[in-house]
Automatic annotation (TrEMBL):
Keywords: Periplasm, Signal, Sugar transport, Transport. One of its GO terms (molecular function) is carbohydrate binding. This is L-arabinose-binding periplasmic protein. Residues 1-24 form the signal peptide. Belongs to the bacterial solute-binding protein 2 family.
Amino acid sequence: MKLKTLLATTALTGLTLLSASASAFSLFGSDDDDTLKLGYLVKQPEEPWFQTEWAFAEKASKDLDFKLIKMAVPDGEKTLNAIDTLAASGAKGFVICTPDPKLGPAIMAKAKSYGLKVVTVDDQFLNAKGKPMKQVPLVMMAASEIGQRQGNELVKEMKKRGWDQSNTAVMAITADELDTARRRVDGSIKAIKESGFPAENIHRVPTKTNDIPGALDAANSLLVQYPNVKQWLIVGMNDNTVLGGVRATEGQGFNAQNVIGIGINGVDAVNELAKSKPTGFYGSLLPSPDVHGYKSIESLYKWVKDGVEPKKFVEVTDVVLITRDNYKAELAKKGL
Ligand code: GLA
């Protein structure tokens, strides 16, 4: 299925669920209905990344014959309400990408009170002491390694263009409170430093929100501090962060000739790569939202149905650089 069709279908279904989530019984059937029901809760349903996870979880539900309940959980209150709704509908468990890792203990307490099984995806829960809740199964991308790949690809492209490193700088838009984001960005900066890039030209700036407007504001505040930089490399934890950085450079008169941004997620970069003219957004690292979506719910299904406990940690390492030249072919290889 083409990515656009797939995402449109998923987004529409997601919206139906959003608007109707109050009436769990009418929508999902009641407790007496004996079809197995499993939830898939995501923090940012507007990101194609999560829509792709949903689409592949939906595929698993068809292959394995269970009912998938997709829910958007942008904040803590909606997350806890969603768990009530799931329990009322008779669901036996859920996969979740939490809007805030610190909600981990509250989510687990509520799930336990209803006897629901929980598998986490993408972002790991933290306990009250801020330490990872390693006993909760997790499917996650290899954050440091993918970050390092981002740094290496940025340096490779900069060298290919023969840029003078003395007037080139790195804009690293950070979100350190999210462990996967911190590890990706740190990995990227490590790789850039190890290539011999001058450390004093690497600038970090935190974003307030993990979306394009948040990253744009962060990037703007950085750009005004370094008016003499001639070329920018943009680092960030995902496509939207890097896109915010690219949009900010455009506001200061930069373009595809003097900016290289490489995102992470791939599926969130399709519209940008499809633009008629190149922008500073050079490419994106496409991991495996398909694998995250399918494997996480499949492991939950086997846990509920056959009592097979999921592995505590599944790290997904597969990643490919997509650019304007190869993105269609690479997405098609994954069935997107
Ligand atoms: C985090 C990010 C998402 C996506 C996933 C992938 O949740 O916020 O954009 O990158 O990780 O695991």
